Amino acid sequence: MENEMELSEMAKMTYEQSEIKERLQWLIKLRWAGCVGVLVGTHIVREIAGLTFPLIPVYLILGLVAIYNAYFQVKLKVAAKDFHKSAIEQISLDFLILAGAIYFSGGCDSPFLYYYLFHIVISGILLPRVWTYRFAVLAIVLPTSIVGLKHFGILPHFAIFRNEPLLFSDLSVMAAYGGVFASTLLLTAYFVTYLSDKLYKKQEEIRRLYILSEKLRSSIVISDVIETVKEELQALSGSARIIYIPLNKSKLALVYTDTTSEHELTIPLADRNAFTDTLLSCEAHILETRVISSEYEDKVIKSLMDNPKEIAVLPVRAAFTTKCYEFFHCPDDTGCAAYGSEDRRCWHISGTHCHGRIMRNVTEKLKECLDCDMFAPVGIFVLDMTRKSKLELRIDIDACMRLLDAASLAVSNAKLYEKTLELSEIDGLTLIKNRRTLLKQLGAETQRAHRYKKTFGLLMLDIDHFKHYNDTNGHPQGDILLKMIADMISENLRDTDTVGRYGGEEFIILLPESDKEEAISIAERIRKAVDNYKFPRAETQPNGKMTVSVGVSSYPDDGDAWEKIIRSADDALYVAKNTGRNRVIAANRPEALI
């Protein structure tokens, strides 16, 4: 990932440098054309207008321009790497040459004054905003200094119209003219930089969208997709810090993990704040930190940045093409709130709320929306909107949203892939781990226990007389029973424990960091829970109720490999089944717990 980020930054630099190089080449050609134009124009004016101004200063200035223009042309072809620096050097020299041209052509009377406007436009195109304003100030200072020194007689006067009086010999007129000229330069600098920044940001947005699409082609894991989107979003927005807050699997809360303290903050969707509003509405929200209304907002912002003044909260959602009225199968009339609506937030349509009925309270309404198959959001991005200086443009939220919309299809594909992986790991009937996944987890737990000198327990559970129950009540009822017992087992386990369907009516329970005594205790708790529960049609069983038998083994007491541990639990289960059922038998122990 770090290599990809470096390549992305290198690509950005290459793109920017090539743009500046192309514009510098254009400027050099324009400078050559200007030299020829001034040289020819000077002689035409002398011949036609009959003016007798000296030519030596003209030749001197044109010679200097030709020398440094040729130098930069060669440098641009063979050696230049930092084109920003080259642009600054060229424009600075142009400004000094223009100052000399203004001095020799009459100061305030000089037509070369207006070339400064042209160079302000050039600097706005080539350079960052701050340099454009610096050159605007320089364009004011240089002519003002020359005119002032000439006015007070410190410098001798040169003018094209040698025999005419100064047009601006009056100091007040000169000041007024200078004010207008300075204002024109500054306004030109402002508008040029504004338009140039707008154009650059639009080009950058298009380029970022292209880079994003290229990167997402090889990303199918949701975490990789989010990380890629985060990188491009940060590059596009220029935000100092961006964090991603995902929606948890239960779809009931946003979970923010502080990377510095590893502290986890759960933000329930039932709480009204900028984060939950953004997720549920799928619309961007701007939040000023001085008007925070939720403790969750305060906690996230405090851990996020150094006193940001403003943050933006952007939704991350998956794409879908089905329209709401198609999803709800709306009839062709006005009775359905989704009919005729172009809103893609099907869970958000007033009066429908995902399944077509009015909710009685906020909690039920929220749950109904979150359960909607069309609920697309997967999390939110939080961006620092604080600008380092007033000259910086505000982050373009619309551009950021367009980038997130472009990534929505990749998010959708990643979610589909994630769901496919989950389905491949769970049993379709009981919705617990399947045999392949559980054995893989058991192997990993065995390696971990061996490395760190830990213990773990294993239970193998079998439903007593399940074939009889199936034959008597039918397979659909047997499926219901399997699901009920799987749920009951899960309810009697710790969060760290795992249950899976081993095959048929057999279940395996993995108990990390548990010794054999703890495993026996948990097995007995499950056995009693099943024994005391009144299952549907349990009276048809031989004993008039549903029961289970459990075999218990543990690592390292009953083996140093997961195959041996399963075999030990299976042998113990065999003993339990053949000594009366409805009991717990531990491996390598003859006694039974009933």
Describe the structure.
The protein is an alpha+beta fold and 594 residues long. Helix content is 55%, strand content 12%. The strands form three sheets. The chain has a six-stranded mixed β-sheet, with helices on both faces. The N terminus is likely disordered.
Largest beta-sheet characterization: 6 strands, mixed
Number of helices: 17
- Structural class of the secondary structure composition? alpha+beta
**What's the overall geometry?**
elongated
* Helical content band: 55-70%
- Number of structurally distinct domains: 3
What are the defining features of this structure?
six-stranded mixed sheet; 594 residues; 3 domains; alpha+beta; four-stranded antiparallel sheet; Beta-Lactamase; Alpha-Beta Plaits
Summarize the structure.
55% of the residues lie in helices and 12% in strands. The protein has 17 helices and 12 strands.
Write the topology of this structure.
Layout: H1 2-49, H2 56-78, H3 83-104, H4 115-126, H5 129-151, H6 171-216, H7 222-237, E1 242-246, E2 253-257, E3 264-268, H8 274-281, E4 285-288, H9 295-304, E5 310-317, H10 324-327, H11 362-370, E6 377-384, H12 397-425, H13 435-452, E7 456-463, H14 466-473, H15 475-491, E8 498-503, E9 506-512, H16 516-532, E10 548-555, H17 562-578, E11 584-586, E12 592-593
Parallel strand pairs: 10-11
Antiparallel strand pairs: 1-6, 2-3, 4-5, 5-6, 7-9, 7-10, 8-9, 11-12
Helix pairs in contact: 1-2, 1-3, 2-3, 3-4, 3-5, 4-5, 4-6, 5-6, 6-7, 6-12, 7-12, 14-15
